[in-house]
């Protein structure tokens, strides 16, 4: 009997509870503070910061993934005897770069400016979370409304790109310890200094309204010139064909995969440099310009090379697409889509002529890094002074071909010359110092048996390119000698 009555008690209790809630609920609602314009504004700001932070982190992840693209591209374009070395250098460069970027690089780049030349604080990420657990926004030299750690990571990915560009030009004959040293120096000193000039809010080029949205000059021109000086001081790879004839790529599949990864990663590189989702139209423009330039450059290169050789050349097509991506990196936010097509067309032809020129002066650049990054980084930077849209540029001035005169072009040229002169001089000092201590080029015995076997005791294809017992013994008993260029 009691078991049958018990459900009714439950229903009665539920009914009474509902009546009490109905009576008291209005009082509870009235007790809460009504929303105000200020509270809604604060909520909106917090939401925007959260969205922007997510966007910048995801973009940073894409840029970091470009390390994989560089590794695959270089591995595919090099000879079998140096693939392991290239893979390890691309991998370890990121590990070295983040440490020097954390210690001093980020502070030099985005710290409080000393005369517009370099930062003087924010070393070792010194802004700790506040006592209430909140995180500081940006950095003294940045106006981005994202927390310091997010900005640090995104910019670190760019620094890693600048350092890894050099591995392509210097592949196959660089001492591994020397690679570790110069990667740390580039990521901690030379690259951050240029970042400060052009991207710090108080940098001397920033105050002149120098335009480089995502790094054609700051990242790629710096990386390209540094790579070229390194390749020049190193001398050519052992056993390469006569000048004018490029050594054949050992795996075009890897090279193609690497290029496609780099193109994909560029959607973090360029659109991510908005550092905010507040202007969706700008994000769309940057994305479209990036795609148009890369596509046009790939077509321009493959057609131009076909006219020259009668062959549809995959390697040149791959480098052509990268040339277009490098060229559009600076102007992607400042030009209309039709200009992006012209920039891509120019880059696709320049990369071919650039490779020819570098070969003609007897500098061994195994992957065409200077032609892709150096030459087209400079071209893309100057293109703003030619095609810049007044409604899009920072100082609301148009480029030369759009009736704006020489003002914008002159500023771009000034900044580019300053960056190139500094980078060339710094690279000579850095690599010259490494050469003086015998840490620039691998030991001559490494040239003889191959850098993979000599420095790493490994082969990327051991069943095709095996290591003999004699070679193993040679790597164990050899003495380190300074390489003397003939």
TrEMBL record:
Residues 55-459 form the Ammonium transporter AmtB-like domain. It is found in: Cell membrane; Membrane. It is a multi-pass membrane protein. It comes from the Bacteria. Residues 1-31 form the signal peptide. The chain crosses the membrane at residues 55-78, 99-126, 146-168, 180-199, 219-236, 248-269, 281-307, 314-330, 336-355, 367-388, 408-431. The keyword Signal applies. One of its GO terms (molecular function) is ammonium channel activity. GO terms for cellular component: plasma membrane. GO terms for biological process: ammonium homeostasis. It holds the Pfam family Ammonium_transp. InterPro entries: Ammonium/urea_transptr (IPR029020), Ammonium_transpt (IPR001905), Ammonium_transpt_CS (IPR018047), NH4_transpt_AmtB-like_dom (IPR024041). Keywords: Ammonia transport, Membrane, Signal, Transmembrane, Transmembrane helix, Transport. Belongs to the ammonia transporter channel (TC 1.A.11.2) family. This is Ammonium transporter.
């Amino acid at each position: 009997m009691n078991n049958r009555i018990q459900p009714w008690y439950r229903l009665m209790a539920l009914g009474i509870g509902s009546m009490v809630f109905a009576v008291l609920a209005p009082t509870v609602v009235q007790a809460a503070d009504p929303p105000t314009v200020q509270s809604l504004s604060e909520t909106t700001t917090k939401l925007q910061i959260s969205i922007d932070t997510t966007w910048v982190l995801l973009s940073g992840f894409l840029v970091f993934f470009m390390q994989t693209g560089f590794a695959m591209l270089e591995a595919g374009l090099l000879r079998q005897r140096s693939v392991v070395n290239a893979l390890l250098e691309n991998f370890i460069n990121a590990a070295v770069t983040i440490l020097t970027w954390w210690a001093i690089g980020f502070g030099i780049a985005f710290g409080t400016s000393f005369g517009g030349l370099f930062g003087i604080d924010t070393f070792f990420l010194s802004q700790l979370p506040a006592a209430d657990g909140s995180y500081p926004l940006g950095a003294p030299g940045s106006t981005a409304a994202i927390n310091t750690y997010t900005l640090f990571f995104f910019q670190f990915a760019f620094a890693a790109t600048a350092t890894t560009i050099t591995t392509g030009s210097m592949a196959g004959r660089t001492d591994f310890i020397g690679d570790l040293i110069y990667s740390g120096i580039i990521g901690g000193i030379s690259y951050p200094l240029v970042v400060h000039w052009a991207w710090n809010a108080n940098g001397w080029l920033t105050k002149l309204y120098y335009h480089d949205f995502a790094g054609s000059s700051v990242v790629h021109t710096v990386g390209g010139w540094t790579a070229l000086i390194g390749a020049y001081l190193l001398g050519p790879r052992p056993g390469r064909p006569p000048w004018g004839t490029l050594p054949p790529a050992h795996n075009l599949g890897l090279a193609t995969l690497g290029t496609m990864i780099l193109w994909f990663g560029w959607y973090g590189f360029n659109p991510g440099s908005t550092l905010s989702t507040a202007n969706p139209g700008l994000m769309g423009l940057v994305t479209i310009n990036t795609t148009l330039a890369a596509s046009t450059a790939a077509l321009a290169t493959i057609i131009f090379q076909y006219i020259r050789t009668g062959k549809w050349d995959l390697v040149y097509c791959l480098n052509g697409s990268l040339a277009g991506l490098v060229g559009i990196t600076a102007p992607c936010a400042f030009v209309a889509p039709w200009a992006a097509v012209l920039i891509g067309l120019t880059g696709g032809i320049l990369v071919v002529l650039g490779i020819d020129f570098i070969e003609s002066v007897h500098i061994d650049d195994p992957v065409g890094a200077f032609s892709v990054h150096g030459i087209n980084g400079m071209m893309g930077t100057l293109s703003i002074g030619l095609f810049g849209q007044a409604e899009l540029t920072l100082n609301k001035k148009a480029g030369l071909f759009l009736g704006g005169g020489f003002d914008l072009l002159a500023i771009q040229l000034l900044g580019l010359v300053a960056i190139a002169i500094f980078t060339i001089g710094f690279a000579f000092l850095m690599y010259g110092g490494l050469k003086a201590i015998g840490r620039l080029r691998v030991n001559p015995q490494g040239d003889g048996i191959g850098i993979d076997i000599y420095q790493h005791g490994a082969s990327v294809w051991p069943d095709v390119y095996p290591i003999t017992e004699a070679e193993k013994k040679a790597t164990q008993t050899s003495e380190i000698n300074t390489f003397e260029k003939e």
